[in-house]
Prior knowledge:
The protein is mainly β. It has strands spanning about 20-30, 40-45, 50-55, 60-65, 70-75, 80-90, 100-105. A four-stranded antiparallel β-sheet has the order 3-2-5-6, with no helix packed on it. It has a three-stranded mixed β-sheet with strand order 4-1-7, with no helix packed on it. It is elongated. The N and C termini lie far apart (about 80 Å).
Amino acid sequence: MASSACDAVEPVMCTLEARAGINVEVFDAMNGESITEGSTMTLRDGDSVETSTGVIGLPLLGAYEREGTYDVSVAHPGYHIWHRADIRVTKDECHVRPVVLRADMEMVSTP
């Protein structure tokens, strides 16, 4: 049986870095300014709960190399909690496929 180079399967070369499955950028819904710094994200997948706090210049990151179906909540002082349910993170041969979300937060109105 003859074989050609087109039939050859190259081995998959995976990198060693850990990738976040959930990436959330947080903004003020009224003015569009980033408020990721100081925001807290909570990820829930079944009994697993993970939290992450934002730092300047980076999105909120979580679910490192962990596929699953997540409920994502973001809290920031002075704003209503932002929530999305059933966010599915899948995986390929090497890493999770990142899901990028934008949380537009609405300020709590004061009387």
